[in-house]
Amino acid sequence: MAEKVALLESYLSCHVCSETFRDPVSLSCSHSFCSSCLQKFWEQAKNKNCPICKRKSSKEHPHVNFRLKELADSVAWRNKTGSSETEKVKEVEVVCSKHPEEPKLFCKDEDRAICTVCEFSVHQNHKVVPIEQAVSDLKDQLKCDLKSLQDKRDKCKQVEKKYSEMREHTKKQLLSTERQIRAEFYKLQQFLKEEEESRLAALREEEEHKGKTISREMKRIQEQISSLSDSICAVEEELQKHKVAFLSTYKDTQTRARAQSSLSDPQLFSGALIDVAKHLGNLSFRVWEKMKEKVHFSPVILDPNTAFPCLCLSDDLTSVRDGDTEQQLPDNPERNTKYAAVLGSEGFSSGKHSWEVEVGDHPYWIVGLAKESVDRKGERKASPKDGIWCLWHGDGKYMNGVGQTVRMKKSLQRIRVQLDYDRGEVSFYHPEDMTHIYTHRHTFTEKLFPFFSVGKSGDAKTTDIRICHSEISLR
C-alpha cells in the first residue's frame, strides 16, 4: 500500500520543483508541470521547450489540466488532514499526562473524556458515563445524522433525475414545436404564394385583354391611315393632270376626298391602361382580410406542461382527450399527476373573460376554472374548497362544484364559461340561447386558470372536448 501511495505521489510531482502539482499543465509531449514552474523555466531558458524531452511546445500558454489538478489537490488535502487527524487521535488517546492509560469515563456536560484518577472528583456533579456507553450513544447520534445526510442526498438525486428528464423532454419539445411552427408557416406561405400567383394572373389577364383591345383599335386606325394615304395620293395625282384631263376626272376624286374628310376624327378610348390602383390599392390589407378566413382564434390555449400524462392534446392545443397509454413526461411542478386534468396557458387576475367548450356526447368531463395554487399532485375534489369552480358531467347527470345536481332540459353539447373576476363570479350558460345554468360566487385572491378534465370514452367519435373558436375573451 505504501508503495502505491509513493508511486502516486511521484506521478503527481512536478519535475521542476519536485513538489505536488499546483495548477498543473500538460504539454503536447504528455509531460506535466506546475504552471508557474513551467513559465519560470521558459523565461530562464528563453525558449518554449519541454524541460524533460526538450521538445518545442505548440502552445504559448497551456491550459490547466483540471483532472490532474483535482487528483493532486485531493492527495495534498488527504496528506494534510491525515497528519492533523493523527494529532487529534493522539490528543484523545492521551487525556492525562500523569496517567497516560486509555480513559474510562466521559463527561457529557463538558463533552470530553476525563482521567479517572485526576478529574473524577471535579466531575462528581456532572453527568459522567462509561466511555463505551458515550461512544455508543454518540455513534448512534452520528448514524442518525448520517441517515439524514443520506436521505438528503437521495432527495437531491431524485430532483437531479427529474431535472434530467425535464432536459430530455425540452429537447423533444424543441423538435416537436419547431416542426409545428414550420408546418403553420408553410400553410401561410402556401396561401400567400397562391394568392400572389392569383393576383399576378389577374394582372396578366387584364394586360392581355387591354393589349388585344389596343391592337384592335390600332389595326382599325392603321386601315384608316392607309385609306387616307391612298386618297391623298389620288388627289395629288389629280392635281398634276393637264386641264382637259383634270376637268374630266376631278369630280370623282373630290367626292371621295370629301367623303373621307367628313368622317369623325379617331378618339382614344378610356380604360386602355392597366388599373394599377385596383391591383395595388390596400393590397396587404385585402390579403390579410382573406387570410382571416384561413386562420382561427381560440380564446383559451391548453398548456401541455400541465397535462396529465394520459391526456392527448391536439397540435393547435385547443382540444383534449384521454389516451389509451401513459406518455413518458417529466414530473415538473406544473403537471397534474393525480387526476386527468389540464389547465389553460393563460391565467386571469382581473376583468371579464369568456369562452365556449364543445363537449359533444362525451360521457365524463369537468369544465371550469382552478386557482393557480391548486394541488396538482395529491388528493383533491373538483370543488371550490380545493380551489376549483366547475360544472361536471358523469353517469348521465350534471353536477356543480358543491355536489348539487343541475337540472337540464336537454343534454349539453356546448358550454359557455364566463368569469367576472372583480365581482367574484364563475357562470355557465347554454350558448345557443344563453340560458343560465349555474353561477359560483367567491372572493378570488389569486390568478385563475381555465380547467378541463376528461374521462375515458368507448366511442372514438366523442373522445375529444375542444375549445370553440367563435368566442373571444372579453377584456
TrEMBL record:
GO MF, any single term: zinc ion binding
Ranges where the RING-type domain occurs: 14-54
SMART domains to which the protein is assigned, alphabetical: BBOX (SM00336), PRY (SM00589), RING (SM00184), SPRY (SM00449)
Coiled-coil blocks: 139-169
Keyword Zinc on entry: yes
Keywords: Coiled coil, Metal-binding, Zinc, Zinc-finger
One Pfam family cited in the UniProt record for this chain: SPRY
B box-type domain segment(s): 91-131
Domain of life: Eukaryota
InterPro entries: B30.2/SPRY, B30.2/SPRY_sf, Butyrophylin_SPRY, ConA-like_dom_sf, PRY, SPRY_dom, TRIM/RBCC, Znf-RING_euk
Domain B30.2/SPRY: 280-474
PANTHER family xrefs: E3 UBIQUITIN-PROTEIN LIGASE TRIM
UniProt-recorded name of the protein: Nuclear factor 7, brain-like
Organism, scientific name: Amphiprion ocellaris
Lineage of origin: Eukaryota, Metazoa, Chordata, Craniata, Vertebrata
